[in-house]
Model the fold of this input.
Amino acid sequence: MQRYNIIKDKIPREILLLKSLPCLYGKCSFCNYILDNSTNINEIIDTNVEIVNMISGEFGVVEIINSGSVFEIPEAILSLIREKCNSKQIHTIYFEVYYGYRKRLKEIIDYFPKQEIRFRIGIETFDDEFRERVYNKPFPTTNLKEFSTNFYACCLLICVQGQVIEQIENDIKIALTYFKEVTINVFVDNGTPVKHDSNLFNLFMTNIYPKIKDLPNIEILIDNKDLGVFVQ
Done:
């Protein structure tokens, strides 16, 4: 288990994996990270206080991930994050947000008036039918202007059985058009019904990866531990 790391490549930042209350949706067919969620507030606070206190301010940028959305982090921990970020002169904070919270983003922006808040959303694919059928994560992406206004960055999930290389290419093209930063997650088998496609992975690594790997606004996670934080 690793809940804190320093990332020095491309987008330098401190990254924290916090324990939180259950994910609002919690039904994504590919996700086992929600197993880290808890309904025990004391457990959540005890786990997170130590991690938040590790913030050093080295880069002035902090990313908070929590197997859900920022709105599932207890207020006591949000308050500690704000206090720590203010004291360490953090100027930018990334938070995860589920689509269902899109109308509440201003609450977080107002809560952290001294920082630029950058929201990251897990879109996984812009093929709405595929996302609903395979990932069990239904929401429309027809209004991409709305997404680009509300969300700074997005995550894509690739190399799963049922995808084709053209879908991956199209998803990356759309993501780069509408978002300032993109994280591409290669799916790793994790005991869920979604399965890794090794042939598709080889195609991606041969045909797409060399063209995008050096783009400054793309992070490609070949393994789900590549950011250095994990609970598996």
